[in-house]
């Protein structure tokens, strides 16, 4: 497996230390963020590129452009700025997340947003990684709808999907699209009480034997169907962020996933 690390796994680690930790764990691919931690807003892209080259990692993506499916003049400016940063720091892609506030977004508006974003991505030689969010309040919950919109926007050469095991489970989606998948995010939920409809980012921990999201069956299905890209750990739970040894915890989760397959 190609394990990767999202910086949210250890948001307290300075950038270069995070990159070095990934290498120490045998991962050569990482994701940086513009929220937690806000690398984009605090570190010059040239410094990010230099740190990546020094530690020997490649940057899969920046997360995230939000809400990409509500296209306005402001969104166009933010998209162009983030794409320029991604290109300058050496990232290969931008993760694009839909509106997640309980408001519907029409399919035609989604398609128009993808069409508007396409030239920005092409100008900066980036892939757009569309990540459906499975929350009940999300305006784009399934990968199937995302693919339909990408096709309608003539974006098959520009866009791929993020298969997030958490959001796949929340959406109740049963179809897998390995040929469309550019990145897989993995995290687990171990709280035995919370209902699926009530699961939030705060419940997302590292994957272990108590996982309720069926990460292992999902990963098996993706690999068996031909997916060979990175599997990036993306836990949002505070208890993970507060760990004194996030590298050790990530190693245990990597070992569990590998042994379970």
UniProtKB/TrEMBL annotation:
Residues 19-257 form the Xylose isomerase-like TIM barrel domain. The keyword Transferase does not apply. It comes from the Bacteria. Gene3D superfamilies: Divalent-metal-dependent TIM barrel enzymes (3.20.20.150). Pfam families: AP_endonuc_2. One of its GO terms (molecular function) is isomerase activity. Keywords: Isomerase, Plasmid. This is Xylose isomerase domain protein TIM barrel. It comes from Methylobacterium nodulans (strain LMG 21967 / CNCM I-2342 / ORS 2060). The lineage of its organism: Bacteria, Pseudomonadati, Pseudomonadota, Alphaproteobacteria, Hyphomicrobiales.
